[in-house]
Amino acid sequence: MAPTAAPREELLVDLRRARDHIDARFGEPIDLQQLAAVAALSKYHFHRLFTAVYGRTPATYLSERRIERAQDLLRATNLTVTEVCFAVGFSSLGSFSSRFRAVVGETPSQFQRRYSGNAPRIPGCYIFMRGLVEIQNASQEKPRSETSC
User: What is the tally of helices (H) and strands (E) in the chain?
Assistant: First the structure.
């Protein structure tokens, strides 16, 4: 297999636009076709270039962004693991927990307990009211609340 030449500068701008799209909309459903359209490339060419430039597939990059945001929410808020799962764009608690454990090395519940010391936590209702996260598939659970909203 011949070595791949570095992408042209215009392609890098297109790939960056798609990466920024992921960063800005990680909580929404995003598919390869949509990202390729943002970059104005075919989905196969986009996938190949994105992987070459960023060292991970678009799906892996999206998943990592979601896990990073989940860590922030688990550390700083009183949201349940289920609410965090849906808030960051996962549609299944099982896939969220599996991916979280693979990336972080512990389950979301273990991670949350580790950071649940005496530090004040932001009530989840404030997070939702301010629009800092949106739940795509609303959880039936009520948020655990230290402060009622």
Answer: 8, 0
